[in-house]
# Entry
Amino acid sequence: MKRTIDLDSWNRKEHFEFFSTFDDPFFGITASVDFTKSFRRCREEQKPFFLYSVHALLQCVNETEAFKLRIEGDRVVRYDAIHLSPTIGRDDGTFGFGFFEYDADFDRFRLHAEQEIARVKNGRGLSFSEHAGREDLIRYSALPWFAFSEMKHAVSFGRGDSVPRISTGKLVHEGERRLLPISVTLHHALADGRDVAELFEKLEAGPR
# Structure
């Protein structure tokens, strides 16, 4: 479900009108987020780190207002729930696009996500599903091979795309802490740096 934002009463109306005219209205932020609390809970509960970390990220996304906003035509809409479109790697070195539906319950989320992982791994090409054109999601990729300090996401702003991009890198051990590199790309007509900071703060706070 979604609702249309009343632009005339929206406190970001001028920001929206200003940045919507840009050739490239996206901005990106990369940071190392302290993921220690979630990492420890994951180990204690013996859950798969990839799905646990993705679920934690998606939970925080759904608690951060700016990540639920999209531009559709000349409207700004707010979705009630945001899901995930991850890239899923295969043994042959290729990848396909999956769809993870958000569920606050991790076990239900994991069940459906594992089914989707199997679908993509057993497929060929990009493995688009019927969910490929949805706007109520985050485009996500995991890069577990290295800890990046900067990243540029591919975007299709020429076609009116406003879907956020998020990538995570290799978990870094720094003493007792576990740092997770995260790159976020957002449409500046909908969000600012403080919205990314809010997301990072929620991630660092750990499991609810």
